[in-house]
Structures are given as structure tokens and as C-alpha cells.
Amino acid sequence: MLEIIDNADLSTRTSLRLQGRVDRLIRVHHPAELADVKRALRGSFRGLLGEGSNSVFGAHIQGTLLQIAWRGYERIGHDRILAHAGEHWDELVQWSLCQGLQGLENLSMIPGSVGAAPIQNIGAYGVELSQCFVALEAIHWESMTRKRFSLEDCQFSYRSSVFKAPSHQHWIISHIELQLNRQATSAHLLSGQLASDHLPAGHLRSEYQASERLTSEHLTSKHLQSEHLASAAEAYVHGPSDQGRSSPTSMLNFRYPDLQAHFRDSRPQTALELAQVIRQIRSSKLPDPEIEPNAGSFFHNPRLHNEAALALKARFPRMPIYPDGAHHHKLSAAWMIDQCGLKGQREGDVGVSAKHALVLVNYGKASGDMLIAFAQGIIDLVQARFGLELTIEPRVLLA
Ligand code: EPU
To answer: Which of 97-106, 250-259, 372-381 has the lowest mean pLDDT?
Structure first.
């Protein structure tokens, strides 16, 4: 059943907790409801809301926002998974690891929903979603037709995809399919038991295909909490039945500087171990949105041709730069903001986190307009000092 909320408070629905309201918010619990919603709206549709972890809204949004609330995930074969758009991304990551599936460990603890993940091609610790992506299915808001988008169709690049282009903003992602690597482990067996206690294999897909509404009883099971992950990891690393598993370590990517610093001369033994290290690093480096409301990285890291990047490096020898393909380098926006003396700086209720210079924080009752004005000040200072124009990463909708 649809949930319709008039004059909805947006501050409780985004991780930045900016003050703001929307004329109407409709929570949609099944893709099959979209056609009815469209008929009822008659043109007032303004956009989609997932978990609100990458969105900046102004004080009053006119029209209607749709919140995608269909959830669930399942294995659709040996080593493939299917996940519905409204599912929590990190819950999917934890579940896949506990299923003995390797591939999402570096993307642990990224806030947000599954449906938002391909739009910005989420990435962290040297891995991007595109690396394990197979396809997604989406519904076109105008025609209500369904289409399968392959990896090529999605045109993934750094924090971007075809769905960011104006021509593709009317596609609503229904579910995604990912290709992971299977590892036979004791944790796999253990977590298989945990998962089957709560979510019978295949239940979601068959119900979905039958176009029944997905009920919250089916879909909100918190079946893999962190203690389960911890015990699964323990079994995986130390369990007596651990011998003879396939060697997963060659697949693990721990080249990112923070991970190199952690492992030094050793290496992660399992995907679960790597995931737990990444969780620790993220917790220590990034502010917790529950305590300091934020939307993660607020700016993209600039990507420059080798020549321009090396010229800048010559002017600022301590600037971190990372090769990105044969012809480009990626630069660190956090470092530049930090060098401008902005880390930890506040202006009223908005500021740059004292923990990480790429994260902007709402310290009280800030509005979207205040935050964007503050961000523009940062863009201007970085431009004046480094000659580069930072671009804002979250989706911004101010009116
Ligand atoms: N740095 C500073 N000051 C700071 C923070 C970082 O000088 O306050 C320097 C670091 O010393 C390091 C460099 O900046 O040399 C890079 O920092 P970090 O490793 O934290 O990564 P990042 O480039 O700032 C990106 C992603 C993050 C992701 C991390 C880890 C973008 C826009 N951000 O941040 O993603 O977690 O790498 O992979 O690409 C997000 O998108 O919301 C997000 C948090």
C-alpha cells in the first residue's frame, strides 16, 4: 500500500538533516505501484529519494518526491546476486560476505540504498561498483516501460553513470544484479544458516515476479547484524573446518594507501577480514552522520590529464596525486580544502568536519541554501589557491 505524507519533513529523511519540507512524499513499496502513482500525480513529480544519504534539499520543495521502499535480495545462481532498489546497501554487503561471496568488501559501510549505488557508481578503497556490476532493470517514469541496462549501457565512470544525464533522469531503478566470487568457507555455511533462518532463498524473486506487494514483514528482517558478521569472520579465519577453502586472497584489493598502511608486510586472509578493517578505517576517519549530520564526500576528487596534474604537483610537491588510467591523475579535494585552512571551520550551523576535510556537516538547523552558499565559498578558495574548480557530489534540489 502506498504511504502518502503531505507537507513532509525532509530533515528526518536525509543524513544531512537540513531543515526543509516537500509538498508531498509518497513511499512506494512495489514497482508495480508506480503506474497508479503517476496517474494520480499529474505532473507534480520532482524526483526520487532513497535513504537521503547523498541529497541536499532546500527549505521548500514544490511538488512530489517518491521514496523507493521496495527491499530484499537473493542469490540468483552460483555467485550472482539480485538486490532491490530500496534495500540498504551496507546490509547487502554484509549479507553477501556472510554468504561466502567476495567482491563487495571494499564497499563496506557506504551509506545509502541499493538503487542509488549505480547512479553515482559508488566507490571506496580502490573499488567501484562497476567492477562487479552485471545489469540493472529500470522503469521509465513517462512510458512506464521496463528496460534492462547492461554494464555498457550504464556508462559508468568515476562517481557517475548515464543516470546522471538529464536524458536519463526519468528512469527509476527497480533492481540490480551483481557478479561476485564464491568462496567455500565455514563462514559460508554458518551465514547460510543465519540467512535461511530469516529469509528463505528465492522467496523475494518469486513474489516479485508474481507482482504481489512486498510486505514489510518479508523485507525488513535485520538478519545480519554486526555480531553475526563478527562471528562469521571469526569462523572464517579460525574455524576448524576452514582448511581446504579456495584461496580468496588473490582477489582482494588492498592497494589503497590506508589499507597498505594497515597491512604493511601482511595481507588480509579473507574478504571478511578486509571488510572489517575497512569498517574500522571508515569509522576512525569519517564522521558518523548520526552524530555529525553529513552526506559523505561533498566534492568530487578532480581528475586531470597527466600534464596538468604533474604541473600542479611541481608547484605543490606535497600534494597527493594518484594515477587514474594511462592519461589521467586523480587529485585529492580533501587535501586542497585542508591546505586552505578550512578543516574544522564553521560558519553558523554549517562547517567542514574536523575529522575529514571533504565532509561538510550540519551542526544544527542549517538549510540547504546555507550549506550550498558555504560550499561555494570553499569552491572559490580552492579555485583561488589551486586554479581548480571543485564540483559538488551530492544531488542538489533547492526549490
Ligand atoms: N586528506 C587530507 N585531509 C583530510 C582528509 C584527507 O589532506 O582531512 C588527504 C589524505 O591524507 C589522503 C587524501 O587526502 O592523502 C585522500 O584521502 P582519503 O583516503 O580519505 O580519500 P578521499 O579521496 O578524500 C575518497 C572517496 C570517499 C572514500 C575514500 C576511501 C571521493 C569523492 N571520496 O575520499 O568516498 O570513502 O576515498 O576510498 O571519491 C563518499 O563518496 O561519500 C566517500 C566517503
So the answer is: 250-259
Query: Which atom of ligand 1 approaches the CA of 339 most closely?
Result: 7
User: So what's the pLDDT on residue 239?
Assistant: 29
- Residues 42-82: pLDDT tens digits? 889 999 999 999 999 999 999 999 999 999 999 998 999 99
Q: Is the CB of 335 under 6 A from ligand 1?
A: yes
The SS3 assignment for 47 reads: strand
**Band of residue 184 on the pLDDT scale cut at 50, 70, 90:** low
Q: Give the active site residues.
A: 159, 297, 393
Which residues lie across from 14 on neighbouring strands? none
**Single-letter code of the amino acid located at 398:** L
Distances (CA, A) of 330 to 158, 237, 256, 258, 319: 10, 35, 13, 16, 11
Span 164-191, mean pLDDT?
Answer: 80
Q: Report, in this order, helix, strand and coil percent for the chain, each rounded to 5.
A: 35, 25, 40
Output the residue whose Cα is nearest ligand 1's atom 28.
124
Is residue 242 within 8 Å of 185, Cβ to Cβ? yes
Helix and strand numbers (H, E) in the chain are 13, 22
226-257: pLDDT as tens digits: 444 444 443 333 322 333 334 445 689 999 99
Distance 333 CA to ligand 1 centre (A): 8
Query: Given strand 146-150, what is the order of strands in its sheet?
Result: 73-75, 80-84, 171-179, 133-140, 146-150
Distance (Å, rounded) from C-alpha 298 to C-alpha 296?
Answer: 6
Contact call for residues 123 and 158 (beta carbons, < 8 A): yes
Q: Are 141 and 174 in contact (CB under 8 A)?
A: no
Those residues with Cβ within 8 angstroms of residue 11's Cβ, 6 or more apart along the chain or in another chain:
17, 18, 19, 20
Q: How far apart are CA 12 and CA 108, in angstroms?
A: 24
Please name which of 77, 89, 96 lies closest in space to residue 191, comparing C-alpha atoms.
96
> Could you tell me the distance, in angstroms and rounded to a whole number, from the CA of residue 393 to the centre of ligand 1?
13
Q: Which residues contact 319 (CB under 8 A, 6 or more apart)?
A: 312, 313, 331, 332, 335, 336
What letters, b where the CB count within 10 A reaches 16 and e where it falls short, cover 171-186? Answer: bbbbbbbbbbbbbebb
Query: Would you tell me how many other CB atoms lie within 10 Å of the CB of residue 141?
Result: 17
